[in-house]
Queue: 3 jobs
Job 1
Amino acid sequence: MGPMREVCAAGGWTLPSQFTLVPVNSPGVLIHWRIQILIMSWIGERRSQELREMYPVGSILSQGRIGPPLNHSQASASMETSPRLENAVSRPRPITVDAHFHLDRAWAKTNLPGRPNLRQYMEMRLPSSQLYAIDVRGGVINFCDPRTWPSDEELEVQDQSWVVAMGVHPKKARELDDARAFRLETLLKTGKLRVLGEVGLDFSTGAPQPQIQISTLRWVLAMASQGGVPVVLHVRGGKDDVHSAQAHIQCIRQCRAILNKGHPIHLHCFDGGWEQAQQWMDNFPGVHFGFTGAVNAFSEDQKLAVVRIPRDRLLLESDAPYFRPAWVPRAGYGHPKYLAEVARGIAAIRQGATVDGALQEGGMNALRFYGLRV
């Protein structure tokens, strides 16, 4: 927002309490790149090129403080890779909430320096040639590796629109020692931790041993039951377990033994078919189902689950850094800003659904389930 304030100060214009693009509420907004794209589309390529040749790209009013000048080839490349105009400016944005992503893993994958920082991660530059422009307004930041759990200070990232979940991925069950277990219990009792997970069962590799995973799952479920907080479940079967059917049965059995029927459960990256969805809803009527980019490759039975699960139970997850869209370079990774790719998959399966509609419904469901506000 600094550059926009500088423009207003130089022109003697009143500063608004908040700059908005739709509608444009200040002359300062005219330097925003999305508005610049709109202006260039109106005046045509010839006049746009004349302006690029007349002035260096960057700030004149602030003598370079807004941004360093670019040469003409860089400016052209920036224009060519920008999102389509209707996505960037004119399309009303649905409320978009990422119900599950891994800030610590994403930070490590992208080789960013220092400790994970939510703001820097959300503002990082991404490939945009096919990006469906969205505004991610909040989400659930999932830490499931005990060795990279956030510090107490980093938990302060939580506000009305973002919440941190801490748990133990079933493949990392051996990392849970007494000290980490005590810390998790303390954070929960003091109210600094509002969501437990992800935790669950994963038999895809055979390690750790099932009994170790089950004991860890039961311990976390007991904490969730005592604290009354939502629990995020990871359920994955072995290679011969179609739709993870047996793993789901086992996980339901463990949950029934510890949780009450009304406990808030979020099934992360749900890959089951309609039968598995029914089993969960029969045992836990308020269960919510998280879908990732995997929805774009679902089988017919999995698609049937997407169709029949009530709309108010669907959650959209980027699961970043995983599920990189096909059009993103191979060196890239998934990101919350690619959440529209999940909505595309949902819209392609559910008759009458739209991408924006799926984003809006998923966002509202996440806000309600996790008690968030945007």
Note: The two ends are 19 Å apart (CA to CA).
Job 2
Amino acid sequence: MNRVLLFVAAMLSVNVGYGICVTNMINPISDIEWDCMFPMTIGGLVSIGGEEELAPSGQSGSFCNCFEDGSNSVGIPFGFWEPKAFIDVVQDAWCFPAMGFELEGMEGAYMNDGSRASADRSYTFAQSHYTLFPALAILDMYYDIPCLKYGDSEGEMDIALVTELLPTWNNDVLAATVYPETVLYANPAAQLACIADAIPSNGFSPINELYWCMGAWGTTYPMTGTISGSDQMEAQAAIAGRSIFQMGRMGLLKEYDKNGCYQRYVSIWTKNRYKLQLMRPTKSSQCINFGRSALIWATGLNTLDNHSYFMFRKVDCCGY
């Protein structure tokens, strides 16, 4: 409730900006590519829709059982992709394009940095905003799915991450100090290992064990808004991916367990349990896994402006 009140207060203090920040409040009906919920599996046997399965269900049988409240319950396993959150990757600070507003007058030593790129386009920097948006709950659609449950506040929209407020997002050295494991992963040897992740990521099989790799997009470390590389579409998608990874390192990322019985907070993501749909400035009709080359999915899409992505996460649940 406190977060909702803070959000309302922020909305009331909004000033309209006429820079490069183009805002348009998200319309879940038209902006979300609902086909990305598929494929859906029921009972481990029936598969509905979808051409590929990015994260196969942990339940291969026709029945599942969960121990809860002192009793063992038997049910039917369900697997599908839940539209869970959207991520704004913005060229100017304090722009919330999918929320429909821009904040002005926010001053601070590290809080006003917008996007930038080197003269030779060898790196890109952008801010990111991660907003929980459980579309099925907001639209009252989840009642048709027996095992999908939301807590008291889990079914509400919530701005969970604003990188302008993170000093580490703008400073590679500070990020390496706060997250000392950066030394292990943001080095040539660890990045060389990411070659092994690049090829399967162009299909539907990113290697979960190489959790610091994002295929053709680069790496999750250092956890800042700076991405090396000249491809703007991959850079923007990589920053969205880093935002999800950042949520995990902050203890705010939830995943369904493969047995379908519960959710748990994770500090390290399981890469193949997430996929992204480009929502703004040009809606994409497909979802992509982390690390897929822009040559495959970004042809003809707008590489400039602010980008908004919708995140789908894999749900494995036991309906009883």
Note: The first strand starts at residue 40 and ends at 42.
Job 3
Amino acid sequence: MDITGLLTNGIGFVATLFSIVMWMPQARITWRNRNDAVRLAGVSETTQWLSMIGYLLWGVFGMLIGSFWVAAPSVVSFPLSLATIVVVRRARRMSVPAASVSIISMSEPLSETNPTDAVPILTTGSIPVIAAGSDHSTVTVPILSSPATPDTAGAPRHVADERTPTTPVPVLA
């Protein structure tokens, strides 16, 4: 093999190495988060299909012209793209759990010497994160509340029955 052939094969080897290494971080992140539909939401299935088709065509082209270095990246990258599609489709079929976010626990009564007297208190222990089936543009949800009436000295009273919601919450659906 002459110097031109060695140089051509050397460049092909480096190009193949970069083509294979390029997909390794995506494959590692996809595999690590295979059970987390939220983290896999940013992976484009269309891009993976296009990459897979492109690698298939490059592999066939490399075999037709007899160039191992043109076809070699397809041997690794085609299965990685296919595996990514399978993992992303599986994750998208998984249900995303609806949950409530706990803000302040109201299980203990407030004492009269509470240092957070000026802070509005929650009337409930959580805020719904996902609300389904609402046809309204706004829904009044008691998130923050303040005492309805002050005591005789003008200080807020800690009577849970007299707390009122502060504002309606817009529902974006």
Note: The chain has three helices and seven strands.
